[in-house]
Amino acid sequence: MSTAILCSGQGRQNPEMFDLVAFEPAAAAIFAAAARALGGRDARDLVREGGSNIQRNDVAQVLCCTAALATWAIIEPSTPRPLIIAGYSAGEVPAWAVAGVIDASIAFDLVTRRAALMDEATREPSGLAAVVGLQRDVVDGLCRAYGLDVAIVNGPLHVIVGGRATGLRQALTDAAARGAIRATILPIHVASHTPALEAAARRFGGLLRETVADARLPREVRLISGIDGTPVRRIADGLDKLAAQIATTIDWATCMDACCAFRPARVLELGPGDALAGIMAEFEPGIPARSAADFRSVAGLRRWMEMAS
After folding, report:
1. Cis peptide before 187 (omega within 30 of 0)
2. CA–CA gap between residue 113 and residue 108 (Å, rounded)
3. Beta bridge partners of 150
4. Calpha distance 290→278 (Å, rounded)
5. What is the structure's pLDDT at 213?
6. Which of 46, 150, 247, 250 is the most buried (most CB within 10 A)?
């Protein structure tokens, strides 16, 4: 029976995000690699301190990569195959490492460079916001009215929009007036997955072609493209999409469709929070879906994975 692995994006970093894996010997190399990416700071100490620093784009992307890869280093040997793997937003680079296409050191270098390129392309206060409970045509109208773009589609009534901070605030006030269940600025300070970052996407594409061009997709792995939910069959095509997603709308609902089509026995989210597991549970209640963040011990996580076999 197959296993689906989902790698979280940024926005849910918190002081407890490494509690499960902080002192596991199998994760030591991942924390060492993360420290190099963070200029010598230990990711575990950084999140315990909390504060706004862990929401900074350059820090957040490294922390999300660390969360995914540290947990995977511990459970990978006992995880049932085949694997279906998808990464959400900033989680797509570590998803390629979970899939075995790149190693952890390359993943950390890529997320560090990715964040820097996105920050360089951000010329004014920008970000993302969640709009829940409005039809897509209404959200599209808000985007046109306030100069925003749809960044991520999580479902028919759950959309993430991105753009300038002033436009986001105005749009959310309007969305609330139109009956949105939730209209909230997210703790992300770049307009990810919108045309505002096209320059960053182009430059990241060049970096990927230089770094990952000779990689191979392991057997028994289905790596799902975050943009449109199609399986990566040719590394070159997958790299083009991995770069393009910086400035292109992510259709996560279609990614969930693709994962469900393989009928996994269980779905596990790697990363801070449990947003992706929650989306999957709503999307397909018949497939057990949990986040590593739900567990208080590695032994408990392993038992759940075995029970779902």
Report:
1. no
2. 9
3. 161
4. 8
5. 78
6. 250
CB neighbourhood size of 16 (10 A): 12
126-185, what's its fold?
Answer: Alpha-Beta Plaits (3.30.70)
Handedness of CA 87, 92, 94, 97 (dihedral sign): positive
Segment 136-150, tens digit of pLDDT: 999 999 999 999 999
Residue ranges, comma separated, of all CATH 3.40.366.10 domains in the chain are: 3-121+195-307
Residue with tokens 């026995």: 265
With beta carbons less than 8 A apart as the criterion, state whether 151 and 90 touch.
no
Token pair of 197 as six digits: 């970052």
From residue 54, alpha-carbon distances to 155, 187, 292 in Å are: 28, 10, 20
User: Residue 115: which pLDDT band, with cuts at 50, 70 and 90?
Assistant: very high
pTM confidence score: 0.96
Nearest 5°: phi and psi at 56?
A: -60, 140
Backbone angles phi, psi at 68, to 5 degrees: -65, -50
- What residues have CB less than 8 Å from 102, skipping those under 6 apart? 96, 110, 211, 212, 215
> Which architecture characterizes domain 3-121+195-307 according to CATH?
3-Layer(aba) Sandwich (3.40)
